Amino acid sequence: MSYVDEILERVVSKNPSETEFHQAVKEVLDSLRCVIDANEEKYKKDAVLERLTEPERVVSFRVPWIDDKGQVQVNRGFRVQFNSAIGPYKGGLRLHPSVNQGIIKFLGFEQIFKNSLTGLPIGGGKGGSDFDPKGKSDREVMAFCQSFMTELHKYIGADTDVPAGDIGVGAREIGFLYGQYKRITGLYEGVLTGKGLTYGGSLARTQATGYGLIYILSEMLSHNGKELSGKTVVISGSGNVAIYATEKAQQLGAKVVALSDSNGYIYDKDGIDLDIVKEIKEVKRARIKEYVEKKPNAVYTEGKGIWSIPCDVALPCATQNELHLEDAKTLFNNGCFAVAEGANMPSTREATDFFLENGMLFMPGKAANAGGVATSALEMSQNSQRLSWTFEEVDAKLKDIMVGIFAKVDDASSRYNMKGNYVAGANIAGFEKVIEAMTAQGIV
Ligand code: NDP
Ligand code: 2IT
Fold this sequence. Notes:
alpha/beta; binds (2Z)-2-iminopentanedioic acid; 12 strands; 49% helix
């Protein structure tokens, strides 16, 4: 049995029921086969893949808090500190009822390679809880965040582990978490990113993941003789990533015709009016179906099905495994030629394989959505310097980073004779830097 297959078996048997983690490891190791095979003896002796797939540390803890009725609630919190070879652990916190250890481990594993691709000194980590912020009052969210941080603060710090937002964690939650960290430790330091602009946040961090997605998409299109301007785009989700991907796509002349949330999707053939969406999602925290009250020509459909809308470009920006093989086929048959993942692992493995086998341009999440964490690293730099850069400075750096990621991904895919396979390119380019750093630091 090859070393890669041995490790795949080991990961499944040592982490039973962590299906998303298995999926993420399998995708990465499958595309590293050529690299591993060429160095099998050395890598095996050094147990490189055993170390890469075993988190440095997993912390799981109780989060008790009191709801508005006086009832005590208990959630489970996690922080997975996966790999610190190239910098302090860095990665978001997800608050969603589906959160479990396997999901946090898949996200932490992906984050290692994503952070490596940014070229910045950040290791891989992720955390979160099965707490559902939906429908909770601000006081309940604050109570949860304070209790969560009361435990988490023991494990994080500006030079050790720097969490940020992810699903269910935006400016409000980061504020509550930061306040509690500061109160407990007395430290005013860059321990979280995505902070508000009045207390150490970076301009353009809010926009960064969505803008970065469109920057790398444009780069991929222009390298393949195409352009975004004039194209019809379908974007899933209507959270942070989806909103700012829509904004930048519109600025660059594309027409975004659909967005969704976990209840259903809207289709506006005239192009989405983003001000209405921002009001619904960022201000009222309401459901996307309210859009059609303001735009009666738009159509709301309950449930899944957003990928049945004809488009040139599809950008899944909601959650993992939201785009299945049947969706991939429908997109292709409707003339879609490019897909870039704003979310983490939104396409199933079968859908990803279909995109690649059918010659569609496909940029995987760990490259496509790296603009968020890259700008978080820029926020860390500004905090260390005790300086703030302008929006234009940060945005220009973000753009450079995304263009640089495309170049690394494209180059790695060419070096291993898989030109245009950006899944392989991202996994290989991300892996190379991490392995070099791990090897240099000895057996740790
Ligand atoms: P938000 O919480 O702001 O928005 C999430 C969106 O996705 C909402 O519209 C939500 O709908 C929808 N969604 C979430 N879970 C599900 C589900 N199980 N089924 C259907 N729809 C769902 O999160 P973000 O925009 O920050 O994150 C979106 C994706 O992007 C995630 O995969 C995240 O890991 C990834 N990402 C985020 C980065 C960031 O900087 N924020 C950086 C890189 C990647 P509803 O409101 O109904 O739940
Ligand atoms: O998945 C991700 O890259 C994020 N949620 C952002 C992480 C960060 O540290 O900004």
